[in-house]
Inverse folding.
């Protein structure tokens, strides 16, 4: 496929948006405006953006705990994402989910808090598309650590044997919390497991947004054509701790972290844009200014949003609210 | 005795039992060099090595199922750490069906001498899948024991007992208790499994609680005392087996009962305990039993809603007044 200037600029803009929103969220943790665990995807942007952008608005997205970038790229406004993490009513899950971001008008189905629940749910979304005869696809993001859970096998195998339109995207950042991949797997590539399901497995440089975009795009086309699922694995690195309660230096070398920062996916695309003469520094600066301005407005929206009303505690439990029995409430 | 935290007390129990018995070993995620996400296994990897302090893949079925297999195959005493109690959801088969039934349905031969440690409870902003207290799930199970210590002293004494026990023990630790300090002997001791503790004596009403809720119940009882109401607070410590004797003795004295737990009410611990009391102490009861528990909704993320959701001392006081009026 052809890589146009507008596509490259869009990737660049979305990656910047992803990065800056997450940097702002890290500050909100320090200000105690974001509670609970925040798992930043800083460093992963080529995957969160490059693999989400090939999707249509009506395609299904299931991601992991590191899902801010994917949600932004799928079009959820930053105010609704940040607001969700702040527990405000503007949040895309009404402040009831926190890390459980969702937006059913944009195909964002959510995340499984117990790691690994995502594989089978994505297979189910693919099953729905297939049964309805639409050409939608489902995209399932996961970490290499989570690929060791049983539902990986069950979800991928079922998607393979039924030729479901699912793309399984592994964001391999080598560490599952403090645990190095080598401690828990004897193979280097999660994508190699595809062979045992009879489907394609593709490994890409997960910091090269163009490579990610192209590989995923191909898998999406294959899925839309009814040829079934693909596993795509991007090698990348998380710059921060597993979550914002720890900084990731207890089990990783500072030198290793620094070396990966040198491979920043955003600087990489910036250089490509400028070196190929596709865009000027000035153009890129303008994009950055716009992104920042927009984020400030969105943050304000989140910050000004009220907390959920007390009665919200008791809504949304059942489709038919009359089923809900509040009982004696003390 | 000296003052140490609940997490340190658990760490000591593990260390002492591993020194005493080389069939004891640990399995879990990030329990090795990292020391576990709440620091409970700190230093054990350095002391006992990776053979006995095993970092596992992110594979809960394999952690618990592997423990059951190692125990059943003969004489091993694995202690498993689930990163959070919520994740029992992905290994219920291994706990509920394997650990709890493998002995009975194989004619009593294998001892499933395993411990499953799991940090439970809401600590602010954990949301629906990272804050739960799932003890009621296992209350309905068979063949399991279940412990819920509320103090550092009990944490150490009960964990040591659980490790030596020949039956599978589910051991729930409330996340907010890890930093709680208390007096703990530096040497070997056991807290008997199946014995409740009377934390405060009283004559008007019995409050039954466990884990973090014991502290809320004591807080409530102290406030009630100022208002002239004498509440007895019982820390159950062990849910399976339940210390019926201590419960019944107290009910005979007060005739009024409030049961407090953090998990939601329907089908919760309160339902079972209240059923047992009405079956066996109906004549001693002066009125209906009250359950102070969370509403039957998933735990909301928003910290404001979470506060509304959680039972606390104030709600226990309301419960006590309710049973005293009736
Ligand atoms: C069933 C289950 N076990 C453990 C956890 C705790 N946990 C959350 S994320 C995580 C590590 C996941 O690693 P990986 O899949 O590689 O993704 P990454 O964090 O590297 O993006 C763990 C152990 C969980 N949420 N669910």
């Amino acid at each position: 496929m052809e890589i146009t200037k507008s596509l490259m600029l869009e990737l660049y803009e979305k990656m910047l948006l992803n990065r800056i929103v997450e940097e702002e969220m890290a500050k909100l943790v320090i200000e105690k405006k974001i509670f609970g665990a925040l798992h930043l995807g800083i460093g992963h942007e080529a995957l969160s953006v490059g693999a989400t952008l090939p999707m249509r608005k009506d395609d299904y997205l299931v991601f992991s705990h590191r899902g801010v970038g994917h949600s932004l790229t799928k079009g959820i406004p930053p105010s609704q994402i940040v607001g969700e993490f702040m527990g405000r009513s503007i949040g895309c899950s009404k402040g009831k989910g926190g890390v459980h971001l969702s937006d059913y008008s944009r195909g964002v189905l959510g995340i499984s808090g117990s790691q690994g629940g995502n594989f089978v749910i994505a297979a189910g979304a693919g099953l729905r598309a297939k049964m309805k005869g639409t050409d939608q696809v489902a995209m399932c993001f996961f970490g290499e650590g989570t690929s060791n859970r049983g539902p990986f096998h069950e979800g991928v195998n079922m998607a393979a044997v039924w030729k479901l339109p699912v793309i399984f995207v592994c964001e391999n950042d080598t560490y599952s919390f403090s645990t190095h991949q080598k401690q828990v797997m004897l193979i280097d590539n999660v994508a190699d497991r595809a062979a045992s399901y009879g489907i394609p497995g593709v490994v890409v440089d997960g910091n090269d947004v163009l490579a990610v975009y192209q590989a995923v795009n191909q898998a999406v086309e294959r899925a839309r054509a009814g040829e079934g699922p693909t596993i795509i694995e991007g090698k990348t690195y998380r710059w921060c701790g597993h979550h914002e309660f720890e900084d990731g230096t207890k089990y990783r070398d500072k030198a290793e972290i620094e070396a990966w920062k040198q491979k920043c996916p955003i600087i990489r695309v910036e250089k490509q844009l400028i070196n190929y003469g596709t865009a000027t520094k000035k153009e890129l600066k303008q994009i950055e200014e716009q992104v920042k301005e927009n984020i400030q407005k969105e943050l304000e929206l989140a910050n000004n949003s009220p907390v959920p009303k007390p009665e919200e505690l008791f809504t949304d439990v059942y489709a038919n609210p009359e089923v809900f029995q509040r009982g004696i409430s003390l | 005795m000296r003052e140490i935290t609940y997490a340190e007390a658990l760490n000591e129990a593990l260390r002492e039992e591993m020194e005493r018995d080389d069939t004891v070993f640990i399995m879990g995620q990030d329990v090795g060099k990292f020391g576990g996400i709440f620091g409970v296994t700190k230093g054990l990897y350095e002391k006992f090595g990776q053979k006995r302090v095993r970092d596992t893949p992110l594979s809960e079925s394999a952690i618990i199922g592997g423990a059951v297999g190692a125990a059943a195959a003969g004489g091993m005493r694995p202690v498993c750490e689930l990163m959070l109690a919520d994740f029992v959801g992905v290994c219920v088969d291994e706990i509920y069906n394997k650990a709890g039934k493998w002995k009975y349905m194989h004619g009593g031969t294998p001892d499933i001498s395993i411990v499953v440690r799991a940090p439970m409870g809401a600590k602010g902003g954990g949301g629906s899948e990272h804050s739960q207290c799932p003890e009621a799930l296992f209350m309905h199970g068979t063949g399991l024991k279940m412990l819920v210590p509320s103090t550092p002293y009990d944490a150490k004494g009960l964990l040591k007992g659980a490790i030596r026990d020949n039956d599978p023990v589910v051991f729930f630790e409330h996340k907010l208790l890890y930093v709680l300090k208390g007096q703990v002997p530096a040497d070997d001791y056991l807290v008997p499994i199946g014995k409740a503790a009377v934390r405060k004596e009283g004559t008007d009403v019995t409050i039954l609680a466990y884990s973090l809720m014991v502290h809320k119940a004591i807080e409530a009882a102290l406030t009630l005392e100022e208002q002239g109401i004498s509440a007895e607070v019982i820390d159950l410590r062990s849910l399976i087996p339940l210390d019926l004797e201590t419960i019944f003795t107290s009910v005979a004295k007060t005739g009024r009962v409030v049961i407090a737990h953090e998990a939601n009410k329907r089908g919760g611990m309160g339902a079972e305990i209240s059923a047992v009391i009405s079956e066996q102490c109906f004549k001693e009861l002066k009125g209906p039993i009250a359950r102070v528990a969370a509403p039957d909704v998933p735990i909301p993320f928003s910290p404001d809603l979470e506060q509304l959701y959680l039972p606390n001392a104030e709600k226990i006081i309301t419960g006590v007044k309710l049973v005293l009026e009736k």
